[in-house]
Every structure is written in structure tokens, then in C-alpha cells.
Amino acid sequence: MFSMTSMQRVMATINLKEPDVVPVGPYMGNHGAKVAGTMISNYCTNGKTMAQAQLDAWEMYGQDILVAQSDNYYIAEGFGIKVDMHEDSTPTLREPIIHDLKDIYKLKVPDPYRDGRMPVYLEAVELIKKAVGDKAAVRGAGTGPLALASHLIGTERFLIQLAMADMELEGEDAKALRHLLELTTDALIAFAKAMLKAGADIVQAGDSLASIDVISPKMYKEWAFPYEKKFFDAMKKVDIDKEFGTILHICGNMTPVLSDMVDTGASILELDYKVDIAEAKKLIGDRVCLIGNLNPTEVLLRGTPEIVAEEAQKCINAAAKGGGYILGSGCELAYFTPQENVKAMIQTARKNHYPL
């Protein structure tokens, strides 16, 4: 097998082919700010700072996928929520925009080029892509429909409203929540399209609240699946002159709905450490590319380089044979993840040449 660029390696893997070596793409958001020595408060509000931090991290680590990512509220702010900014941490929700479900019908889909902090992320992606070109893949951010809806109401209240609506699926509350999820899906579609135009090679729906650790499989199929599928269906129709990938990222043990996640149409499923990666490979590995799933806390943050290398090799042994697998972190790298541990993860992937 000839030596590939990171971009070629990632795209071959997304297409379920065997690349030269196992690709590696830790979900590196605010850890990039730590590497670059910049404050998170500046990193998440300044596209140039975010881009440079991720480029600094790439220069240090040489991973195959760069990620423009920081916090959860960049799209939600476009709808009108208020957040508190902090000196050196990510923003936190101060006030939702929906205080009564009737408020949902007043909302409009925000403009990704103008509203909230979406322009910050778009600028970061554009600058990263200009710097790396076709050498590496650039992954954009994107809040999934259910998670985004919760940011507009407040997570606790949203889950209560969702549980009540699930008991009366034809009621007015259920209709209002479905309307909200249509809006949040449309907002994600608009943002993802803008991400692709800015240069992203991978766009995503990060729908962590759709976790089976939070809602039931039945509720996932009723309240999350249709809107995630709408997003990925829309991505398949994007008219852009380049190949790109799409990720569905959901935290927790999603094993009961893995087949449904594939049916959304995502080309990549990012699996949390709670999922048995060997079982996932067996169940759905012939249908979709998998990325994951080193434990970001117990292994990558608290482990040693030796432990990281051992656990990374276990993931590769379980899921990489035949292609269609990217070594990744189960969720976002912790800010203080030791650099030696990230290097051990990447070096382990580099040692695994195809055919395995």
C-alpha cells in the first residue's frame, strides 16, 4: 500500500476501504487552546485564535482530522439565548429563549453568517482549511436537533416537556416540540452547508441529549431519529464539488439503537467509550464508518502513555480490520489531557499498517 495523505486516508476509510494505516482523529476542541496557550474565552469567540490553536495542535500531534470545536451554544445564541462568558472557560446558559411553548412559534431559523457565534466557527474552518489544504481533513462543529432544542428551553425543563409530550403524541405540546425540532434541524442544515462552503471536509450532528443514557430507545426513535435523518438526507443533496463526510455523535451506550443510527444516513458514527466497539463493528461495521472510542477521562486524561497505547491497540484490534474505522476519543478530549497521552494514541494508529 502506498503512503497516503491524511485526507486520502480519512476519505478511503469513510468509504469503508482499507487505507495505508489506521486513521486517527481525537475529538480535540478546547484541548487545542491548551496546547496553544490561549484562554478558552478568547478561543471560543475569535475565529483566528481558534484556527491557530488547532493548527498548533496539528503541528504538534500530526493527527488526520482537525476539529474546529469549543462549546455548545454557538448556534443557540443565533436563536436569541443569553449566555454568560467566563474568563477562561466555555460559556454557560444564563437565559433560554423559550419560556412558554407558545414562544416556539415566534422563532426563526438564524443566519449562520450573521447570528450568534456561528461566524466565529465558520472563520476558523476557513482559515484551517486554507492552511492544511488537502493534507488533512477538517471537521466542523454542529449541534444536533434534540440537543439544540434543549439549549433553547433549558435542558431540565426540556426533558420534562419531552416526557409529557411523549405521553400524548397528538397533543398541542407535542406539536410545539415537533415544530421546534424542525426549526433546530433547519438551523443545523444551514450551518452545515455554510461549514462545507467554508472548507469543512466533515460536518456533524452532535446530538448528545439523544443518548439512551438520558432517553429511552422508544423516545430516541420518536424524537431524535426523524430529525437526525432529515439532516443527513439534506447533506446528501448538497451541491458542492467535493467529497465530504458526515458524523452522528451521541454520547452514552447507544448499542440498543445502533442500527437506527446507521439508518439516519450518517457516513460516520462516533461512539462513546460506553459502547463495545467490537460489538458495534460486528453489528454495523459493514454499513458505516466508525470512529472511537477511547475513554477520554479514565484513559486519555488520567492514564499513562503506556495505558493509552494498550487501549488504543485494543480498539484497533476490535474494529479496524477490513477498514471503515478511525481511532478516536469517545468524546471530546479534556482540556488538561497530557500531551504525551495524545501522542501515544496517534503513534499507535501509525504503527498499524493495512492489511492488518
> What structural category characterises the helix and strand content?
alpha/beta
Going by CATH, the architecture would be: Alpha-Beta Barrel
Radius of gyration: 19 Å
Strand content: 5-15%
C-alpha end-to-end distance = 12 Å
The fold-level CATH name is TIM Barrel
Please count the helical segments: 15
> How do the helices and strands follow one another from N- to C-terminus?
HHHHEHEEHEHHHEHEHEHEHHEH
CATH class category name: Alpha Beta
- Write down the domain tally: 1
Average pLDDT for all residues: 97
The helicity comes to 40-55%
Shape: globular
Strand order of the largest sheet: 5-6-7-8-9
Q: Total strand count, please?
A: 9
Q: Stretches where pLDDT falls below 50 for ≥5 residues?
A: none
* Largest sheet data: 5 strands, parallel
Question: Summed up, what is this model?
Answer:
The protein is α/β, with parallel strands linked by helices. It is built from 15 helices and nine strands. Helix 7 packs across helix 9 and helix 9 runs parallel beside helix 10.
Q: Would you give an account of this structure?
A:
The strands form 3 sheets. This protein has a 5-stranded parallel β-sheet, sandwiched between helices. A two-stranded parallel ribbon has the order 1-4. The protein has a two-stranded antiparallel ribbon with strand order 2-3. By secondary structure, it is of the alpha/beta class. The protein is built from 15 helices and 9 strands. 48% of the residues lie in helices and 12% in strands. The chain has one domain (30-287): Alpha-Beta Barrel (TIM Barrel).
